[in-house]
Amino acid sequence: MSDTPVVTWTTDAPGVVVVTMDRPPANALGIPLLDGLHAAIDAAEQAGDVKVMVITSAREGFFAAGADIKHMSTIDAASFLAYGDRMRAVNDRLAAAGWISIAAVDGLALGGGLELAMACTLRVAGPRAKLGLPEVRLGLIPGAGGTQRLPQLVGRGRALDIMLTARQVPADEALRIGLVDRLAEDDVVKGALELAGDLVGSSLPAQLAVVRTVDAAFAMPLEEGFAFEAQQEQGLFEDGEAAEGIAAFVAKRPPSFA
């Protein structure tokens, strides 16, 4: 067994870290890769200065092919539960992280691979991207957030179509239905880093508040959502970076956000 790490991370620019999955042949989300993703998140939390995390793949033709089916074929019910919990924990940590995350997807993102991408804040797809949740062909359902996150992105009917047919959604359709947010013409990592460059100049606390309030729109009645929005804005004015943003605007200078 190779000692080469299957997940590595590098700083591309101040505040921007690129996490690369590289587990041959197809980035199956086995324990080594999940542990590597947890380690990358740990490192970002410890660094304390990450504003954008890009997650991508070094495997030609694959973002991540899904759960490790060979591993699943050898385990009992208790181990299956523990394995699922480990996968869900990665996605939940990404979704709740103190930075913006971007999945840079080219090639196949299937099953757990798509669930990982959907846990990110945003998704950039390359021209070869194909996305799907084919778990019904294994007699299972998407169990790492897929049945919950996919309808929020594409709506109930489209989500059911994708999951019940187990089909693969090409990049252009994924953009049209909202499954991905941008298409890259060629180099998906370059496209994701361009998006990251657009993000790092703004206030991270304000960006995270935007994410929280938009997510609240799916979880709260409208009036509660309005109240939550007002609470978030007041908090940014009192304790966030609004003072610097407002002062910079008045002084006609670029803001100096942390």
TrEMBL record:
Any matching Pfam family: ECH_1
Alphabetically ordered keywords of this record: Lyase
Record's catalysed reaction(s): a 4-saturated-(3S)-3-hydroxyacyl-CoA = a (3E)-enoyl-CoA + H2O; a (3S)-3-hydroxyacyl-CoA = a (2E)-enoyl-CoA + H2O
Stored PANTHER family: ENOYL-COA HYDRATASE, MITOCHONDRIAL, ENOYL-COA HYDRATASE-RELATED
Family per record: Belongs to the enoyl-CoA hydratase/isomerase family.
Full protein name: Enoyl-CoA hydratase-related protein
Record organism: Nocardioides humi
